[in-house]
Design a protein that fits this description.
The protein is α/β, with parallel strands linked by helices. The protein is built from 10 helices and 6 strands. Helices cover 56% and strands 8% of the residues. Helix 4 links the parallel strand 1 and strand 2.
Length: 331
């Protein structure tokens, strides 16, 4: 099957899924939901189905591209003499070996950086005590965001020391399913952070958009906490309330000082972590926000120079598409 046919088949299957989901959703909505809630639920189901369609199409395209390259390689070899074929094969083996050696070196350097960060890196905690407030799909979404956090942290020359606290139940089960999770250079604790850091409570700072304290700089002695909650706006203010009940410090990222958000200042966990990682590297909040926060989540900046910075970065990094699908923790 050629590329067009494969992609078309995947799209057709996904379209059928959308139709089925829409029909099923419409028939299962109970009278207990308001019309607005019904519309939101239907919209969410359609969105999920559309995402599945894109995923299926991308998978089909990748498979088709792999098959195309394989055929091109076989055709190339068939047109060569035996001697030429041996030389080409040897050259290919050498290139493959070089790539593998390079990856091995990069992997080792990454491990060394992350190990060093456990001693002198900025402590960042992802609070996983909200799993009982989320559906299985929302937990899965959070697990994916945590995976992005770990991958992004390993790319920095000065990574942070990542912690997962309150990690148990369904959350722990889904994390364990991630390939290589048991080898992650990260600290994980089944206990709540308030117990993990009971002797350092004065250094705990919960990052929440509801805080009245603006975070001007990052203190290496502080332990910054990010709430792991894909809340769908159902649990507004929950992280602030939790911090107040535990009598720990709170702060919010200084987003409003540099740009206007198109909606509430709600970011995904991996966006919050990446902003902090960018700041640790550049010590520049504005640059960190503009590099991480998707343009769809923000209005034009007040100052023209901010817009010029954005346009410059878009020209330099056109291939980078930061599309986060689900709203998450309050920052």
């Amino acid at each position: 099957m050629d590329h067009v046919s494969t992609t078309a088949a995947a799209a057709a299957a996904a379209e059928a899924t959308i139709t089925a989901v829409t029909s099923t959703t419409a028939s299962t909505i109970t009278g207990g939901l308001s019309k607005t809630a019904q519309k939101k639920l239907l919209k969410q189901q359609k969105f999920e189905a559309k995402r599945a369609e894109k995923k299926a199409a991308a998978k089909a395209q990748k498979k088709s591209e792999t098959e195309r390259k394989r055929k091109e390689w076989e055709e190339k070899l068939s047109n060569l003499s035996e001697e030429e074929r041996i030389k080409v094969m040897e050259s290919r083996k050498e290139l493959r070996k070089e790539r593998m050696d390079k990856r091995s070196v990069e992997k080792q350097l990454k491990a060394e950086r992350l190990t060093a960060a456990k001693v002198n890196g900025q402590n960042l905690v992802i609070d996983l005590e909200f799993s009982d407030l989320m559906t299985s799909n929302e937990i899965n979404s959070l697990v994916q965001q945590i995976m992005y956090c770990y991958a992004e942290n390993g790319r920095y020359s000065t990574p942070a020391h990542l912690w997962l606290t309150g990690c148990q139940g369904e959350m722990d089960k889904q994390l364990q399913r991630l390939p290589g999770f048991d080898k992650w250079i990260i600290d994980k604790d089944t206990q709540p952070y308030i117990q993990t850091f009971e002797n350092q409570k004065e250094h705990l700072v919960y990052l929440t958009a509801d805080s009245e304290t603006m975070l001007d700089d990052l203190d290496p002695k502080k332990i910054y906490i990010v709430g792991g909650l894909v809340d769908r706006n159902r649990w507004k203010g929950i992280t602030m309330k939790k911090a107040e009940e535990q009598n720990i410090q709170t702060a919010k990222l200084p987003i409003g000082n540099f740009l206007k958000m198109s909606s509430s200042q709600v970011l995904t966990v991996n966006q919050v972590i990446e902003i902090i990682l960018k700041y640790l590297e550049t010590r520049d909040w504005k640059d960190s926000f503009f590099q991480v926060i998707p343009q769809r989540k923000r209005f034009e900046a007040d100052l023209e120079e901010n817009q010029e910075d954005v346009e410059d970065k878009q020209d330099e990094e056109q291939y980078v598409v930061q599309e986060q699908k689900k709203p998450c923790t309050e920052t």
